[in-house]
Amino acid sequence: MRPLNIVVIINTLFFLLIYLFIDHENMYILAAGAGLTLVTVLGYYIIKKAKMGDPYLFLIISLLSSIGITMIYRLNPSTGLRQILWYVFGVILFFLSYVIFIKIRNWESYVYLYIAGGLLLFLLTFTLGTTVKGATNWIRIGNFTFQPAEIIKIIYVFFIAAYFTYPKKLKNVYIFTGIAYLHILLLFFQRDLGMAMLFYGIFLSVFYVFSKDQKLLLLNIAGAFAIVIVGYYTMNHVQIRFEAWINPWENIASRGYQITQSLFAIAEGGFFGTGLGMGRPDFIPEVHTDFIFSAICEEMGLFGGIGVVLLYFILVYRGFKIVLHTEDKFKRIVALGITLTYSYQTFIIIGGVIKLIPLTGITLPFVSYGGSSLVTAFIAFGILQGISKNTQMELS
Fold first, then answer.
1. Cα-Cα-Cα-Cα dihedral of 189, 192, 194, 195, to 10°?
2. What are phi and psi of 169, to 5 degrees?
3. Exposed, middle or buried by CB within 10 Å (0-12, 13-18, 19+), for 229?
4. What sections of 141-279 are H helices per DSSP?
């Protein structure tokens, strides 16, 4: 069976289940499902007919988005409909970012622009930002809110790629390292620890692959441990999250409530799940964002959760395949950075909700509710789609 047919069948099944068991009086959800599926099919055929590179990236992220929309609609219909609109907007920006990336030349020459752009967005966040769940990382304009760090992480990948393509533009590796650490430090000042961890992982991984300075690499690894220790002793909410990770049962009614409810939900689902709309994932605070994976496991079962994880594995595999078949150094590093960004982000949030690692407040790519995260993820993969264009023969 062709991958496109699988996506269409799964989409059809999901929206029929929503109509039958969640909102059987609302025919609009069937129309919305049909529209979403049509957008996916059209996007796939545009990529195939125009020979835009890897034909499977778009299908995988669309299927992940459909799973997310299904669970979000089940939790809150109005929020689910907004997520469908964000998906359509994300698809438009996916193709737009693809066109812009392949049309503009010499991306590797703008290292100072990437530095300035990232720091400017940080400055705007500190001056105009609002505090949400302890982190000052959102900007609110009327009823619209967005998270600048989602945009900064794409710029950050471009900055790292530009440096390793032409290292002499920043004179030496210590200036580069200092600027990279400045991004991470500013995220700490915002108390956005999940994003800081993500930025550090990207920096350290690309540095390991493309730098021959093993001494500096070891110093950076030591620096990571130092940052964790300093963060633990200077930030109260870091201590709370760490203690909730070690023993959530001790304070199950307060600091351990989220993670214990997440574990209860996953256990309640068993292998096959309680069925869509038959569980109680609403017991988990912030279930539509941080804990969407727990809701999936409760109502779709461990097999549903494993299916989502396998989709991410396939997505990461396609990303690494693009990296290995890209000859241009800058594009290769950008492809690696984007692939690592979303693989690490997936590990951090899934690891957090199953109590493998301390919980951090970042979203599950393409699945969690959120316009900023969904749209920037589509932009990032539109760029990755553009990089894959010259590797079409190997990837088809």
1. -80
2. -65, -25
3. exposed
4. 148-165, 173-189, 193-210, 214-234, 236-246, 257-269
- The alpha carbon torsion through 140, 144, 150, 151 (nearest 10 deg) reads -90
Among 258, 192, 255, 188, CA closest to 223: 188
Euclidean distance between CA atoms 360 and 207, whole angstroms: 24
Please state the rounded mean pLDDT for residues 153-159. Answer: 96
pTM: 0.93
Predicted confidence (pLDDT) at residue 168 exceeds the cutoff of 90: no
The whole-number average pLDDT for the span 217-233 is 82
**136: Cβ contacts below 8 Å, ≥ 6 apart:** 125, 126, 129, 130, 190, 191, 192
Quick one: angle between helices 214-234 and 236-246, nearest 10? 90
Q: Residue 384: what residue type? A: L
* Spatial distance between the Cα atoms of 344 and 251, rounded to a whole number of angstroms: 29
In this predicted structure, the answer to whether residue 391 has a pLDDT above a threshold of 80 is: no
Mean pLDDT to the nearest integer, 163-188: 89
Please give the pLDDT value at position 394.
47
Cα 59 to Cα 56: distance, rounded to the nearest angstrom: 5
Place of tokens 């199953």: 354
Give φ, ψ of 128 to 5 degrees. -110, -5
How high is the pLDDT of residue 393? 43
Roughly what angle, to the nearest 10 degrees, separates helices 193-210 and 173-189? 160
Q: Counting Cβ atoms within 10 Å, is residue 8 exposed (0-12), middle (13-18) or buried (19+)?
A: middle
Residues 384/57, Cβ–Cβ less than 8 Å: yes
Q: Which H or E element spans position 307? A: helix 292-324
| Contact present, 96 and 382 (Cβ < 8 Å) | yes
**pLDDT at position 116:** 95
Helix axes 329-353, 148-165, angle to 10 degrees: 140
Tokens for 12, please give them.
Answer: 């059809």
Give the residue-averaged pLDDT of 176-204.
89
How far apart CA 174 and CA 166 sit, in angstroms, is 15
Tens digits of per-residue pLDDT, 197-211? 899 999 999 999 988
Domain residue ranges in the chain = 3-395
Overall average pLDDT of the 107-128 stretch: 91
Q: Which one has a higher pLDDT value, 229 or 162?
A: 162
